[in-house]
Specification:
Mean pLDDT: 94
Number of strands: 12
CATH architecture of the largest domain: 3-Layer(aba) Sandwich
Helix content: 25-40%
Number of domains: 2
Number of helices: 14
Distance between the termini: 9 Å
Strand content: 5-15%
CATH class of the largest domain: Alpha Beta
Shape: globular
Largest sheet: 6 strands, parallel
Radius of gyration: 21 Å
CATH topology of the largest domain: Rossmann fold
Length: about 375
């Protein structure tokens, strides 16, 4: 491909995730990747440009958020990025909030040449509550997408059923990890030294009530819930549950390593809730206890993963105890190996976008092979 022009790709992310905003938020050691979600890894094989955040005053912010509430997606943010969206050959998105906004903008501009890879995350979980104008609008806009992608097979199947098309793909995700920061963090801790149970996340599909019930069955074990979830049921927490967020990336990595067990308690969902924490835990090598709902099983590849029956506190407590006893064996050497072998790194995730981009621009059939859990990250090297 020497001498060929690289595909022009516009990475359209939510307001607040422009490259300047991303880099201004923290120093490099506290960023899990130099670019949001690791999309910058494709920079050697595609011509990347990024969405920008407009400076907002009180009125302009009110207008943007107000329109987002009405439409369910951030059209004002898309309008502000109309030049980048309309000049791109392919647009990459990360959630339906950006996908639908980009599709609506391009329709209004009568742009039929720019292809949108429209990722959806929460749309199909919420589908039964979406009615009337919004439902008709969303289905209409998604018909303009070159392809819809999800991170879960359940989301994919729900999208195919609702839209009446097979042109929806499950793109296995990969969590970005700052290897330098992780290495430094691991040098300062002894694996499992904290001796407790760690639970992280703020997704609305976290099952905190079952976690609390399991903690009551294990009064001699300390639980740390690291969350900024404003709806967390603190009133229901037993005495051995501490609720305290984690401030920095190195603290996150140390918490993973020091925990005897990491728990992801979940209620049924469609979007693989917890996949980032699951991948990060296995990357570090800590024991993981969770439940296979939402298509999360796609991301459970290490040998130190135990599953419990959703909503069953006794089963969760038993799984925690079993993995607790294994913490003395040290980190799981198989977790990171399997993540790399099965193509669940952030580079593999981004490489799948590149494969889709090339197929769309070549007019080729959709490459359904991107759904396979195999390593594809080598294509990011020219």
């Amino acid at each position: 491909m020497v001498g060929e022009a690289q595909p022009r790709v516009f990475v359209f992310l939510q307001h607040g995730l422009s490259i300047p905003s991303w880099r201004r938020s923290k120093d490099d050691a506290q960023l899990n990747s130099p670019t949001p979600y690791g999309y910058g890894a494709a920079g050697a094989v595609v011509d990347l440009t990024w969405s920008e955040d407009a400076d907002e005053g009180r009125v302009s912010r009110f207008v943007r958020l107000g329109s987002r509430r009405v439409l369910g997606f951030d059209f004002v943010h898309a309008w502000r990025n109309r030049r980048g969206l309309s000049r791109a050959e392919v647009v990459w998105t990360h959630t339906e909030r950006e996908s639908l906004a980009a599709l609506m903008l391009l329709r209004l501009l009568r742009n039929r040449s720019t292809r949108v890879i429209a990722q959806t995350v929460w749309l199909w979980d919420n589908w039964q509550t979406i009615r009337g104008f919004r439902r008709r609008l969303y289905l209409s806009l998604l018909r303009d997408a070159a392809v819809e992608v999800t991170l879960s097979t359940l989301n994919r199947d729900a999208a195919r059923a609702a839209r009446g098309t097979d042109e929806v793909l499950c793109l296995p995700f990969g969590a970005a990890v700052n290897e330098s920061t992780l290495e430094r963090a691991l040098r300062t801790v002894a694996p499992g030294a904290g001796g407790g149970v760690l639970a992280m996340g703020r997704d609305r599909h976290r099952d905190w009530s079952t976690l609390h019930a399991a903690a009551r069955l294990l009064p001699d074990i300390d639980f740390w819930v690291a969350t900024v979830d404003a709806a967390y049921p603190t009133h229901d927490a037993p005495p051995n549950v501490r609720i305290e967020p984690i401030g920095s990336l190195d603290e996150v990595y140390r918490a993973y390593a020091e925990a005897a067990v990491v728990v992801i308690p979940l209620v049924p969902n469609l979007h693989a809730s917890g996949c980032t924490v699951a991948l990060e835990t296995q990357h570090v090598g800590s024991s993981l206890v969770t439940t296979d709902v939402g298509g999360l099983g796609l991301y459970l590849v290490g040998s130190r993963v135990a599953q419990y029956e959703t909503g069953n506190a006794a089963a969760l407590a038993d799984a925690i105890l079993a993995e607790y006893d294994r913490a003395a064996d040290g980190p799981d050497p198989d977790g990171l190996k399997q993540i790399r072998a099965q193509g669940l790194t952030s580079d593999d995730y981004v490489a799948r976008y590149v494969i889709l981009t090339r197929a769309l621009l070549a007019g080729a059939p959709l490459p359904y092979e991107v759904e396979a859990t195999v390593s594809v990250r080598d294509i990011l090297t020219p």
